[in-house]
Amino acid sequence: MFDFPHERLDGGPLSERRDHALTWSGTELVVWGGDPGDAHAPFADGAAYEPETGIWRSLTASPLSARTRHSAVWYGERMFVWGGFGSLEDGAGDTRMRGDGAFYDPVSDSWEEAATAPEARASAHAVVVGDVVVIAGGSSDADGASVSGFLVYEPGGNAWETVPWPSGEGVRIHALERRGDSAVALGTRDGVPLVAAFVPGSSGVAERSWDDYASPAASVGLVSDSDGLLFGIIRDDDRTRLLEVAEDGAPVLRAETEGARFRPPVSMTASPLSVGRLYAAEDGRMIATGDGDVSVWDLRNGTSVRGQGGALGGYCGPFVLVEDSRLLGWGGLDCALSGIDLDLGT
Fold first, then answer.
1. How far is the C-alpha of 314 from the C-alpha of 47, rounded, in Å?
2. CA–CA gap between residue 110 and residue 61 (Å, rounded)
3. What pLDDT sits at residue 218?
4. pLDDT of res. 24
5. Rounded to an integer, what distance in angstroms lies between the CA atom of residue 240 and that of residue 258?
6. Angle at 281 between CA 280 and CA 282, to 5 degrees
């Protein structure tokens, strides 16, 4: 294991939790929701941390009910929180699944409710494409049943659209990214990876299977870089491969590394739960994070390193990339550190 240089991040005003939203506004680390280890007793509070000053502030109360495993993405200068898994005690009827959402404005410290989606999901992926938010994957019930098809939310008209995926039955979506004016999802069907893409408002879903890379126990990830290129990463028992996603969805092998030092953020067997994040740094490194897990693949020289547990000071929660060489983390249950400021070096 590699010992990444790190500093303790002050715990702040929130109680410890898991499955919360953890996002970066550009100046603040923003936390909202999650649960204390019991998904049936989620939280409805949040806080923001400013690294420049080392100061936490509590977020104003949200109109959303308490929830965990929700989606969060920045739409312009506001954070959009949607979906998730809630409690029966919050007046939402006889279901714990949530289909409502709201925008949080950090400047005014205020919330604005959004229209409720035509269906509810938890642990779903979200990405902004142009002027809409695209939702993909996740589960449709408390038992974790995976769903395909896409939801598209247009904030300007406060309206939702369902984009069906006629051949999506049996597909589990693991990641979602934007490429140009398209939303691209990476998923699997019967252990075979595939990508599915569509342009919001103008096309149906186009699918491409990656039959040569089938591996039921693989870890995967999807990421776009600053040049607009899209990459999939697949790790099996003995190697990890970097695949550029061509315009027609075909995989083009660009690099590979032996061994297990680099771990893509999504386990095909555990998804949609336990999903981490994958970043393409501008300096030529791929950075994968999971709960208490960081690995870096330097494409400039082919080396890779990984840190867990004691190598991260005992931190066991999620991370978000704030600079090419810096990760911030907050959360997790019974961690030695409640938060971490981690230096990836150069």
1. 22
2. 8
3. 82
4. 98
5. 6
6. 120
Q: Where does 6-343 sit in CATH, by number?
A: 2.120.10.80
Euclidean distance between CA atoms 177 and 185, whole angstroms: 6
What whole-number distance in Å separates Cα of residue 143 and Cα of residue 134?
23
User: Rounded CA gap, 52 and 201, in Å?
Assistant: 41
Q: What are the C-alpha distances in Å from 121 to residues 59, 115, 127, 131?
A: 24, 15, 15, 22
pLDDT of 145 reads 63
pTM of the shown model? 0.95
Place of tokens 């190697």: 239
- Per domain, the residue ranges of the chain are 6-343
Which residues of the chain are modeled with pLDDT < 70?
1, 90-94, 142-145, 272-274
* One-letter identity of residue 286: M
Task: Write out the two tokens for 237.
Answer: 């028992």
- pLDDT of the residue at 294: 96
CA 335 → CA 219, 220, 326, distances in Å?
24, 26, 20
CA pair distance 86, 67, nearest whole angstrom: 4
* Burial tier of 326 (Cβ tally within 10 Å: 0-12, 13-18, 19+): middle
Neighbours of 247 (CB within 10 A): 10
Instruction: Report, in angstroms and rounded to the nearest whole number, the Rg of the chain calculated over CA atoms.
Output: 19
Q: Is the peptide bond before 13 cis (omega within 30 degrees of 0)?
A: no
Q: Is 215 exposed, middle or buried (0-12, 13-18, 19+ CB in 10 A)?
A: middle
pLDDT tens for each residue of 185-203: 999 988 899 999 999 998 7
Instruction: Assess contact for 331 and 35: CB atoms under 8 A.
Output: no
Q: What is the pLDDT of residue 53?
A: 96
